[in-house]
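By convention, the token line describes the chain's fold. To illustrate:
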Amino acid sequence: MKMGWLSGSEQNGTLLDRERAIFELIMPFGSERRVAATGMVINGRTLKMQKLMMQALSLGMGLALAGAVWAEAPKEWNTVGGEQDEAMLLTPDLENGLDVYEVCAACHLTEGWGTKEGTFPQLAGQHRNVLIKQLADIRALNRDNPTMYPFALPESIGDAQALADVTAYIETLPMNPENGVGPGDKLEQGKKLYDDNCVKCHGESGRGDPEKFYPRIEGQHYKYMLRQFEWIRDGKRRNANPDMVKQIEGFSDDDMIAVIDYVSRLKPPKEDLAPSKDWLNPDFD
């Protein structure tokens, strides 16, 4: 029997394999600075971060082994009320947002840039409303994300105020000037598909619309977007906007690759970018 909170390829393998994968995902890879993001090195923040990470990991393992979380029928895409609306109405505290983000940095990195190979998306610069909605959906089991779920719970990061704080902090982070891009061999086809199907919601530059919860997709990693696009098209992402599901249901795999390749090359304004790919978040010095 498949557990409902595992979608797509995440439903494959044994429970042990999945929990080992979760543990490996929070372990560092890359530079020594990335090692710091796991809580092993960061000055003054080490103990707190390690404790939060291990609590979240323990909770995630317990849920998986007990089979405690199951898929439910998808709810309406964007219902009024609940934790989402509560968080959006609260005044954010950026200092607490930084404290909360310590947990997120284990995977999304201290800069909020995620990884080019697509395991983790770039969060830096994303609209606060979009981030709140996605976190609230994961917490409410409206979006399946078994790796992130235990780290997003109130026991790990806090209540609605924590959502307000951490999303406001993430929105202030400058974006990676060298995000992961696609192969680049079907850009003309990708542009036509984008103009015909995506501009109405995401805009010509891919900036999205925070008031309508349309995410900022300019500067996002190609492989992450490709995976999410496929899951939305194939009905595997339960909190997807139904208008988008309908819009892209006829896309072939070739269409999908072409349009996401084009989108991955849409660059944010210079003022929203870090000065270089080597920029390090000074908040974690």
In short: The CA atoms of residues 86 and 180 lie 34 Å apart. The chain has two domains: 8-173, 187-272. The mean pLDDT is 82. Residues 187-272 form a domain with the Cytochrome Bc1 Complex; Chain D, domain 2 fold (CATH 1.10.760.10).
